[in-house]
Amino acid sequence: MTHQTPDLSAALNREQANEELFALLRLPSVSADPTRTADMAATAEFLRAKLAGLGFTARIDPTAGHPVVYAERLNAPGKPTVLIYGHYDVQPEAPLEEWVTPPFEPAIRDGRIYARGSTDDKGQAYAHVKGVELLLSQGELPVNVKFLLEGEEEIGSPNLEPYLRDHAGELKADVIVISDGSRFAPDVPTITYGVRGLSYVEIHVQGANRDLHSGSYGGAAPNPINALAEIITRLKDDQGRVTIPGFYDGIDDLTPEERQMWADLPHSDDEFAASIGVPALPGEAGYTTLERLWGRPTLDVNGIWGGYQGEGSKTVIAAKAGAKVSMRLVPGQDPERITQLITDYVPTLAPAGTTATVHPHHGGRPFKFDLNSPYNLAANRALHRVYGRDAVFARTGGSIPIVAAFNDLLHAPVLFVDLGLNEDAPHSPNESFAVSDYHNGILTSAYLLQELGAPNTAE
Fold first, then answer.
1. Which of 217, 291, 376, 456 could join 221 via S-S bond, C-beta 3.0 to 4.6 A?
2. Is-contact 83 412, C-beta < 8 A?
3. How crowded is the C-beta side of 194, counted as CA atoms within 13 Å?
4. What sign for the dihedral angle of Cα 29, 34, 39, 44?
5. What is the tens place of the pLDDT at every residue in 142-151?
6. Alpha-carbon distance 349 to 355, whole Å?
7. Which residues, in sequence order, are CB contacts of 76 under 8 Å at separation 6+?
8. pLDDT score for 1
9. Cα 159 to Cα 66: distance, rounded to the nearest angstrom
10. Element (H, E) at 402
């Protein structure tokens, strides 16, 4: 039964909530860009000051990279402790020419807030800050609340795991709440119970010891760009399956119950294809689109380089070529093992006259959570209060590498309550966040804390 508390919608100052988020979005906190270090520090201070102003004990903790913002308000003795995780760093804005409005000058068009980080993850994380503020406007918080806001999620969180290890006692919580993904569809509340893992690598192909004149050497010298194209093509077969030996070993199969649950969701392949402007949805044979998105591993080329790419022509055979490759992983796959498998396999695919090497970047473990945990049930009650309907249960195709560390080091269950949508275009030009989703996210956060503080929630 829903914990009976007043409707908070009327108490939400939507205009102020928008203004504060805009101020946060104007800060170009690109963790991958070393020239933005001062902007990263300013963003951390913005969040620290806001939480301190709400009566939290708040501080900025340095790491070997960008800092962590930590805050706590522990004024609910005997009640659960909720740790809210988010990240304040954002993806690089390139390609800049594809943005309709500047990426760090927020603009509302057709009911959407356009800015880099609007949905990933500043908008979603700040909705929790405003949700706490909304509850405090009505009295004390119904639970103990801790915030952990990091600045390196978009570069693989290299320094967060050591931070968790060093602060494990202070970060102790009954449940960890994360909003850093997408709901199934507009007006469809969603609880995410699984995330895919990640192995991210670069493939480098070397040919001659220098760029060569394509007339003088073409037809005799090896071409690394052609070789790279051949290697990439051979990484998948004509059924959409990855060819790396051992890649699928040990994978947890989808259960019949999961496949039926996803088949019952209001999904249309035609509408999905139209939403991204493509005529077809290629993928692994034998699986539906949702199954391929949520429950099957992938291999995708994310970037490719080699040769002359300036204006006009330059007739050369490049000496080098390369590609960035990501593999999304599912339960049963270990990212370190998968990285080693592709590292061993790619050199065997190099055509004559070339050498191919693999250079690992970052990764993360896949994770799956209990559908029927009391925390999921509390989240469902909170979402019902906002949307007037029960949530659907879905997995996400994305990866949040630090989730495994939360499980290993903090020993607390993770609760995903995503507030955005795939159509928000995270990581892409013209990233956005629907104003209504932001406001509903604030209400969802407030109601979730109320439900988590209700009697018997964690029994």
1. 217
2. yes
3. 22
4. positive
5. 999 999 999 9
6. 9
7. 140, 141, 142, 143, 144, 453
8. 45
9. 8
10. helix 402-405
